[in-house]
Amino acid sequence: MTVKTLLLAGGSLLVSASAASASGFQVNLGGQKNIGMGGVGVGLSLDQAAMFYNPGALAMVRDNGVQVGVNGAIARVSFRDANGGAQTAIDNKVVVPFNFYAGFGPKEAKYKFGVAVYTPYGSTLKYNDNWAGRYALTEITLQSVYIQPTASYAITPQLSVGAGLTILAYGNVNLQKDIPLPTGPGHITLDGKAKTQFGYNVGVFFKPSDKFSAGISYRSRINAEVENGTVSYTGLATGASASTVNKSFTANAFSASLPLPSVASIGLGITPTDKLTIGLDASLTFWNVYRNLELNFSGNNGNGPVDGAVGTTATNVSSSKRYYQDALAFRLGGQYKVSDKLMVRAGTGYDFTAVKDGYVGPETPDADRVTGTAGLSYQVSENFGIDASFLFEAFMKRTQTQQDLLDNGTTDRIAGTFRTNIYVPGIGLNYKF
Prior knowledge:
Blueprint: H1 4-7, H2 32-36, H3 50-53, E1 65-71, E2 73-81, E3 88-91, E4 94-95, E5 98-104, E6 111-118, E7 123-127, E8 139-154, E9 159-181, E10 184-193, E11 197-209, E12 212-219, E13 222-234, H4 242-245, E14 253-260, E15 263-270, E16 276-285, E17 292-297, E18 317-321, E19 327-337, E20 342-351, E21 369-379, E22 384-395, E23 398-400, H5 402-408, E24 416-432
Antiparallel strand pairs: 1-5, 1-24, 2-3, 2-4, 2-24, 3-7, 5-6, 6-8, 7-8, 8-9, 9-10, 9-11, 10-13, 11-12, 12-15, 13-14, 14-17, 15-16, 16-19, 17-18, 19-20, 20-21, 21-22, 22-24, 23-24
């Protein structure tokens, strides 16, 4: 009967339970062209979305331009309890991550400047009523917006570098669960906004010939911090039981911190013909910094009355193990120029999970995953074009037993089998000048 099993089972402030094309709760939806090519981009200089994948490549993008894109991410998550029973699915929700890029500089100059706005973390999951894990999580809504001013400089015609200041400009989290009270089920909601935080995104891009390019990039860790988030309850005891039961739920505010880990990436670009471009990326996300999630509450968090009455344990701090592991990801994609107006794309990828056995939670039912993508661009005029993409991601079936949870001390989660598929159509507009 603790708040611990809500937010500590929902260990993702500002992160995605239905993350697309990345391990854990990371999202890799930087640009429509890149998505269509399996998510590659570190070793390529396709367009202004280079600010997301490799800021060093921006100086090699020939045209100034503005582009905007939006995706509709739909997660299909199913769960079967280890104790048996019918399979449970989530209510279908559509999450809408977006991106905006503007890159500019003198045509013949060695430098380019730009600004990027994107949503690297965000999700909505709502489990069906009375599902087996309702005392761990019933609903999660997460939103975030990053702003990244960027500068890139070509040291030579073949070598360029770049850096961007990553700013967590907006973040919001809403987590809900049911509470098993002796007087009947209650419900608790945690809602909070994140503080503005800063990091950086740097990269180096090398293109020794028209046939080959390579890049490396590093995106730094940012700590997402929520202070003075609100805690609210419904369905608490009334009447004679209220004074006994409700004194365990006096917290009305919480604070927490979550590391959004750093990512190191390398990429290659190969152009065997004027019409064909192939990209290959590999990345390592340093998830091992995510060891525990701690919540600090303004009052009693459900473990006992705050006044320290005899026979109770009062506390306003809850801690839950995460013990994530570093995770590799590989992506391969290509684009083919059908005509001066039409470009088609396809790609694939494989991401290794960051979540160890026995640590899987309903907010991030993560597993190894394989991705397939497709996309196209149509140049309506010399300056204006339309980009479209589609991503499908299949998670491997993930099962954890009650013994796994007992062995790891993670009984704030639920034993059973998760299976997830994600569908992400996207559309974008671009204008060159």
